[in-house]
Amino acid sequence: MKYSKEAKPERAGGGGAGARAVPVALMLLLLCGFSFYLGGIYSTGRTFTFSSTTTSIIPIVSTAKQEGSAIALAIARNGNGDDEVEFSECPADYQDYTPCTDPKRWRRYGNYRLSFMERHCPPPPERAVCLVPPPRGYKPPIRWPKSKDQCWYRNVPYDWINSQKSNQHWLRKDGDRFTFPGGGTMFPNGVGAYVDLMADLIPGMKDGSVRTALDTGCGVASWGGDLLARNILTVSLAPRDNHEAQVQFALERGIPAILGIISTQRLPIPSASMDMAHCSRCLIPWTEFGGLYLMEIQRVLRPGGFWVLSGPPINYENRWHGWNTTVEAQKADFDRLKKMLASMCFRLYNKKGDIAVWQKSLDAGCYDKLTPVTTPAKCDDSVDADAAWYVPMRSCVTAPSPKSRGKALPKWPQRLGVAPERVSVVPGGSGSTMKHDDGKWKAAVKHYKALLPALGSDKVRNVMDMSTVYGGFAASLVKDPVWVMNVVSSYGPNSLGVVYDRGLIGTNHDWCEAFSTYPRTYDLLHADGLFAAESHRCEMKFVLVEMDRILRPTGYAIIRDNPYFLDSVASIAKGMRWTCDRHDTENKENEKEKLLICHKQLWSAKKA
Questions:
Q1: What transmembrane ranges does the database entry give (predicted)?
Q2: Which residue, of 176, 440, 486, 501, has the fewest CB within 10 Å?
Q3: Eight-class DSSP state of 152
Q4: Per-residue confidence (pLDDT) for residue 364, from 0 to 100
Q5: What is the mean pLDDT of residues 510-516?
Q6: Contact 388/267 with Cβ under 8 angstroms?
Q7: How far is C-alpha 457 from the chain's CA centre?
Q8: Would you call 402 exposed, middle or buried from its count of C-beta atoms within 10 A (0-12, 13-18, 19+)?
Q9: 227 near 218, Cβ under 8 Å?
């Protein structure tokens, strides 16, 4: 934003050069100091109050003309001296806009291993600083648990997936809604029967040993949805595509999911985090590229964790006729798969019908046999195994930490309250600090519910904690009908492993960029100290516009921060058509931290 001075200081009359030197030097010093002060204000996103009583509009237009959008941000100074921010509506074709996985930008990137479908965020000049409109006819989602089996058609109006997948019973259009019969390519008898068989093969699914799971190529997340009733929390993963909107369907149903693909970058998940990983005909070429994709699964699985595969080449003896292949080719692929997994310290744990289960070894001796020069190689210490934000996948096997070798985590729900080994990655982290943090959030959530009765009711299902450390906010909600996506900053201590070790789920993220999800996918966003922590890097308006994109109409945001930042947040939120109220925290005497509770309004696009 460029400002020009409306008046110049008059040149003083009379006097020589020596008489003028001191005033000129003093004026320059004052101007430099004032410029530095203004720079500090605008770099943090703080609103500066002008004394002018005139009204002016200053447009900032994006250069992303190829996106087909005329995007403008207007800052109006009104008569009472407060800054008012107004945002234009995005074009109607932005209703499913995902900035960092935008199909309109795919041609800019290579096809190698489908890397164009990974995160590629637009540079600041091309960011869409506008409000994403809901589809025509949008209405508040069906509430949980009914939403697991149905959603409004107008909220996710995609006919292509219905016509292409109806024979697999993924979903069915029924009047004004989609219904989800629970079918799939590999579970024609329904997802319940499929998971029942899986639980017979993996007894740990029944006793709390298996708590966290990863579903690669998740479809509409019926597998993850079924596991919720079995106290297993799944991160369902699928890439952005032009037609299917799989992740959007999952989140509309109230099932955890994120946009992502196993390609060239690590998944934004720390090592040894998942009790189970699953692929049901997910079409990932597991044995290609030297087993690189298998090595990423090996990295994120805990020692003793399970990898479940159904679809080619499992049960090839009876299935190969429908796979457009030969029995010899499928047998060779299955043999190659078994050999690769054995070399990565997996053993074939169980197999029945279309399902095969491998277990990652707890035996330290297997990993000790690997070295940086064996095949496969053992990963060295040059890259942290937990580092996962824009970190390239490595063609090597990740050995378990010496501290965790041979040790199994407590079963769920006991593990929620036990401080894991990884708590030490947090500066000052320990069992006592984690327990203190849990106590803080238990009191905070009680206070939140008094201020926002919707929290804890069926009005709130999908929740995101935008800046967590130990996952204490999510832990305090574990008995409510919600699930929480815990976000750990990619620029701070990587405590995400602690979150997973407690039996919760989450992802790494940098809030200077857009999140890996579709618009309108969360009912509640919780931001604790986010703007104070990130204001030196991220421009406030971009973060708030992103929050508006991912928040459902009629959804809520609880922003807990220094009052210095809340003033600016409230001003920008008003321009996003949110209504906000300011409150004390549970500690009313704490003047350094206040609450802003905001409600996003449901509005209709002005233009079709």
A1: 21-42
A2: 176
A3: E
A4: 83
A5: 98
A6: yes
A7: 23
A8: exposed
A9: no
Higher pLDDT, 3 or 397: 397
For residue range 251-260, list pLDDT tens digits in order: 999 999 999 9
Containing H/E element for 212? strand 212-216
* Per-residue confidence (pLDDT) for residue 555, from 0 to 100: 98
Cβ atoms of 222 and 188 closer than 8 Å: no
121-146 mean pLDDT: 95
CA angle 417, 203, 422 (to 5 degrees): 30
Contact 222, 170 (CB under 8 A): yes
Amino acid at 543: V
Binning pLDDT at 50, 70 and 90, where does residue 68 land? very low
Identify the DSSP state of 315.
T
Which amino acid is present at 592? K
What are the CA-CA distances from residue 253 to residues 98, 128, 462 (Å)?
A: 19, 27, 10
For 583, the enclosing helix (H) or strand (E) is strand 578-584
Averaged confidence pLDDT in the chain: 86
Asked, as a colleague might, if the bond just before 125 is cis with ω within 30 of 0, I would say no
Angle at 424 between CA 422 and CA 429, to 5 degrees: 120
- Under 8 Å between Cβ of 257 and 251: yes
Query: Would you state the pLDDT for residue 47?
Result: 34
Which amino acid, one-letter code, is at 559?
I
CA neighbor of 226 nearest in space, from 283, 181, 160: 181
Q: Are 537 and 584 spatial neighbours (Cβ–Cβ below 8 Å)?
A: no
| Three-state DSSP state, 357 | strand
Q: How many CB atoms sit inside 10 A of residue 517's CB?
A: 23
- Higher confidence at residue 63 or residue 133? 133
Decide if 581 contacts 597 (C-beta within 8 A): yes
